[in-house]
Amino acid sequence: MAEKIAQRVCREMKTLKVFGDVHISLLLDQQKGQPIVSSQYFNAKEAAALQGNIFNPTLALQTIKNLNRRTITRTDWKNIGPRVGLSWNPSFDSGMLGQVLGDRKTVLRGGYSLVYDRMNATNAGIESSLGAFYQGLATTGPVNASGQPFRIGVDGATPLPTVPVETLPYAPSIPFGLLFAVLQNPTNTIGRAHLLDVTIQRELPSRFFLEVGYVGRLGRNLRMDTTLNAVPYFMVDSQSKQSFAKAYDAVAKQLRAGVSVTSITAQPWFENYLSAVATGCGGGTVNATQCLALQDSGDFINGGLSSLWQTNMDIIRLLNGQPTELNLQTIDPIVRVGDTNSNYNALFLSVHRQMSRGFTFDVNYTFSRSMDDAGNTQDNGQGFSSPFTPQLDYDVSQFDRTHVLNAHWYEELPFGAGRHFSTGKRLDKLVGGWYTAGIVTANSGLPLCPIYGSGAFGGGLIIAPPNCGDTRNPRGTLRGLPAWQLDLSAGKITNLTERFRLVFSADLINALNHPLFGDPTLDMTSPETFGSIPITERNSPRLVQLALRLEF
Hints:
Helices cover 15% and strands 32% of the residues. The chain is of the alpha+beta class.
């Protein structure tokens, strides 16, 4: 039975037709009729590529209703989230343990919990559940009967593009019968995090408390995008045994050195894969390697593997009736997988002084490291540099700060009734009740890395692979500028009656008017701005805030 594929109509009107669960879909291997599992797909593609063979099954979309499934992924009935906490307050009144731990002066605490991810419904659920039944379709430059730009609500019915009718399972035509498809991996499970903490707190003389501890956050089965059209850069030519990576690097090295296209050395991999242009394609070229360098030198120079392969090499093979390595039914068949991890480990030291004689303070220092596969959050839409080697991207998170220090204090000045310097009932109203307070924050810089262009491992055309973070250019090699700020406050509390008091405060945010400049620009594709510090500031100039408040 033919069914209309729901379309998103862009420009003047946006619509999305969903009738129950009929358009919630999965990606299939059309020949086998089985849902595509990304790990199995990449394993098969890698095995074939290493033998010089092509693995590129025809893809099709089928609704879960027609697959006799109630959900895209199987319901997980094992999502049990245990939480355990322990504390011990030992009592030692003598000996070495008595001196170190004291009599009820020390508390040891530990805890563990398993919590589960809360998914973004739109990015991780709705879009990827609809698969290709959710597409952009635009009407360009509609006009009215007079040939003037069409006015919605004035010139009659809105001219909408024709919504095509397709049968299920829906196999997009070649080339690029479908702009893009976003689908869930059918084996995905709910992301989870193991939360760990161990602390020891010791009471010290003069109302001081010292606490040291460890905090761990270990994320597992986290979501990330990948594309089935990732380039198998390791693909071997079955005749010469040369790999695509070696052939590509050889041509790129010559072009970057300024060698003319007609002097580029022929590479066996290109000659055999592009045998249809073995004698060149004009412009003085005499072989397939030179032909490719003439047509697409930019992708060699800038590391555009996905573009080179999908919009050039495989198009040449398609036009000459040869099978293609990448799928040309859609630009990027994007799959949301749940195979990534994150690890946050931190040690902290905290010193606290309880309020005594009108004075209290806290000082907290954290030494930490956050690492993950993407460097960002689940809503970022970033993909692997290469799903064939996902470990390339495991590095420090983009938000990682190794050192973080914060401190705050509050001090009541020793003047007025009940203070060290009492001046009498009348004068106490004027000189008593004054206080000062402040907050100091400081942290080390965020990870930086030079931007050398995206797609160096062929991770896709639409999804954005990291510009850095792979093993060649780790995110933590360079760090951004550190930051610190001091905020001050002073005020006076005046008791009017037993029920009413007047509070005056003067707050100075960024009291020293200390500027925090942005991190330097490290875009190697823009030499004129490389290393420059942006003039915009990350913080605000000094802000003075005065307040008068009546409390009762």
